[in-house]
Specification:
Elements lengths: L3 E4 L10 H11 L7 E4 L5 H14 L4 E6 L1 H14 L2 E6 L8 H23 L10
Helix pairs in contact: 2-3, 3-4
């Protein structure tokens, strides 16, 4: 592993950005701090990947593994490809959505946003790699 790129901004009511919380966890797990890159401005998947692309370019990285919930992976991979990231899927082995009560709404959410992105994409509108 060259770098671990952690993405995610601060949600409504959050005191810390997702990327910073993940960074603290990675440091505690033994990942060297100089190998962790973070961006903490993004709030949606397209922004996460756009900002990650900028960091990749800045550090000369050619490819990445995308680690995400299995229900989210298809949309994340399509967005990454459209942004210009050569990505490999690495879905998490478990999901926070364990029952149909929690899985159903998440699946509906992902389906809605995946189809919405396909519609937007058909109009030629795609996210771009952030300036690195």
């Amino acid at each position: 592993m060259d770098y671990l790129i952690l993405t995610g901004g601060r949600g409504e009511g959050d005191t810390q950005a997702e990327a910073e919380v993940a960074r603290q966890y990675a440091l505690q797990a033994g990942v060297p701090g100089e190998r962790i890159l973070t961006e903490s401005v993004s709030t949606i998947t397209a922004e996460n990947l756009s900002e990650a692309c900028g960091l990749m370019r800045q550090h000369g990285l050619q490819s990445a593994f995308i680690v995400s919930d299995p229900l989210h992976m298809q949309r994340a991979m399509l967005l990454a490809r459209d942004i210009g990231i050569r990505a490999h899927a690495a879905p998490t082995p478990t999901s926070r959505y364990r029952s149909w009560k929690s899985k159903g709404p998440s699946l509906a959410y992902e389906t809605f946003f995946y189809l919405s992105y396909l519609a937007t994409r058909s109009l030629g509108l795609r996210p771009q790699c952030a300036a690195g």
